[in-house]
Structure formats: structure tokens, C-alpha cells
Give the backbone structure.
Amino acid sequence: KAKELLDGYGADYKVWELDLEAEGELLQAKLLEISGQKTVPNIFINKNHIGGFSDLKSLDDAGALKALVAKDESNSPSLGEQVSTFINTNGVALFSKSWCPYCKKAKELLDGYKAEYKVWELDLEANGDL
């Protein structure tokens, strides 16, 4: 529901599917520490914690969501910059599609070595065209 609401405004957002992340439980614990919220979705907009879907919906009902998600193209990193940042800030960066059997094998191999890695699930991106 949150994705549908944000898509309705053409919002540019990043989704981390915690259940698909190698360290999803650690990420969720860190989110709890930062936000005080244990449940998902756990939504941040412009570095501010919004809450869950009901909080997002309340902002929309009050007419405030559109302004929050309005794109400021002057500050938006290009896709190339986002990819470079992802690669440069993670020791092992894996670009994947959640359904890909070879991607799953790569994750299993890395898990077998207890490697720390970050996954960018391209098919779970908001625009889906990556």
C-alpha cells in the first residue's frame, strides 16, 4: 500500500526488503534503534522518520505528502552516481534480481563464506527498469 501511494505521486524511493537482505534482522534492529519502530513498512522521507503506512496515509489525507515527496532535481544524484556510491560504499556489492537463480546461487556462496555484502535487487526498484 505504501508503495502504491508513493507511486501515485511519482515519488523516487528506495525499498530495502529486509526479508531478502542477508543481514535483514540486523538492519531491522538498527531501524528500531533509530526510529523506535519495529514494524514494517518503516518509512523515512528526506531523512525524517515518518512511521508506518497509517502515518504516511495520514500525511496524504492532510494534503502534506505531495510536498514532501516532490522531486528536487537539483539535489538528486543520477543513477550512475547512485550505482557508483553503492559500489564504493560496500566491500561486496551484488546487483541482483530476486527471482534470478544465478543471483540466488551467488548469495548462497557468499553466505557460505559468511561474507558481508549488500544486495541491490533491481526488480524491486520503484521504477523497475534498472
Q: What stands out?
A: The longest strand covers residues 48-51. The two ends are 22 Å apart (CA to CA). Residues 92 and 115 are 8 Å apart (CA to CA). The longest helix spans residues 24-35.
